[in-house]
C-alpha cells in the first residue's frame, strides 16, 4: 500500500471523516439532480446527453461514483471487522474477513473503472 493510503485508512477517525465527506458529495449530487428536474421538467434525451457531455458534469458524476465506492467500502469494512471475528466465527475468521474485504475492494475498483469508461465514452 502507498503511504497516502496507509495515512488515510490507518485510523477510525480518518475513515469516519472520509465517509462523511463522501456522503456530502453524494447528497450534493442528488440535490443537484432534483433541482435540475424541478427547474427543467421538460428535459428530453438530447438535453440529458448534452448535460452529461459537459466536462464539469462528467467530473461531478465521476466524483460521485468514487464517493459512493469509498462510502460503501468503508461501511462494508466496518461490518466485516465488527462481525467476522475469531470470537464469533472461529479460527478461519481472519481469512474470511480478509477475503471479504479483498472482494469488496475489487468490486468497488471495477465499478469505478467501468463508470469511468462509460462517462468518457459519451
Structure characterization notes:
With 122 residues, the chain is mainly α. It has one domain: 3 helical TM bundles of succinate and fumarate reductases (Up-down Bundle). 85% of the residues lie in helices and 0% in strands. The chain has helices at residues 3-9, 12-39, 45-53, 55-83, 86-89, 93-119. Helix 2 (12-39) crosses helix 4 and helix 4 runs antiparallel to helix 6. The mean pLDDT is 91.
Keywords:
122 residues, mainly alpha, 3 helical TM bundles of succinate and fumarate reductases, 85% helix, 0% strand
Short description:
By secondary structure, the protein is mainly α. The protein is built from six helices and no strands. It has one domain: 3 helical TM bundles of succinate and fumarate reductases (Up-down Bundle).
Give me the secondary-structure topology.
Layout: H1 3-9, H2 12-39, H3 45-53, H4 55-83, H5 86-89, H6 93-119
Task: Kindly report the average pLDDT value.
Answer: 91
Total beta strand runs: 0
Question: What is the percent of helical residues?
Answer: over 70%
Largest sheet features = none
Indicate the CATH class: Mainly Alpha
Number of structurally distinct domains = 1
Q: In terms of structural class, how would the helical and strand content be classed? A: mainly alpha
Spans of 5+ residues with little confidence (pLDDT < 50)? Answer: none
Strand content: under 5%
Second CATH tier, the architecture: Up-down Bundle
Q: Roughly how many Å apart are the termini?
A: 33 Å
CATH topology: 3 helical TM bundles of succinate and fumarate reductases
> How are helices and strands ordered from N to C?
HHHHHH
- If helices are DSSP runs of H or I spanning 4 or more residues, what is the number of helices? 6
Q: Give the overall shape.
A: elongated
Amino acid at each position: 500500500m502507498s503511504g497516502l493510503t496507509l495515512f488515510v485508512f490507518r485510523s477510525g477517525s480518518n475513515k469516519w471523516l472520509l465517509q462523511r465527506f463522501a456522503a456530502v458529495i453524494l447528497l450534493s449530487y442528488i440535490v443537484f439532480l432534483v433541482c435540475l428536474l424541478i427547474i427543467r421538467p421538460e428535459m428530453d434525451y438530447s438535453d440529458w446527453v448534452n448535460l452529461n457531455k459537459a466536462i464539469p458534469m462528467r467530473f461531478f458524476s465521476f466524483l460521485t461514483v468514487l464517493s459512493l465506492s469509498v462510502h460503501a467500502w468503508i461501511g462494508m469494512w466496518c461490518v466485516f471487522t465488527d462481525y467476522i471475528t475469531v470470537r464469533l466465527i472461529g479460527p478461519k475468521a481472519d481469512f474470511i474477513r480478509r477475503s471479504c474485504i479483498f472482494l469488496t475492494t475489487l468490486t468497488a475498483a471495477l465499478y469505478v473503472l467501468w463508470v469511468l469508461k462509460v462517462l468518457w465514452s459519451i
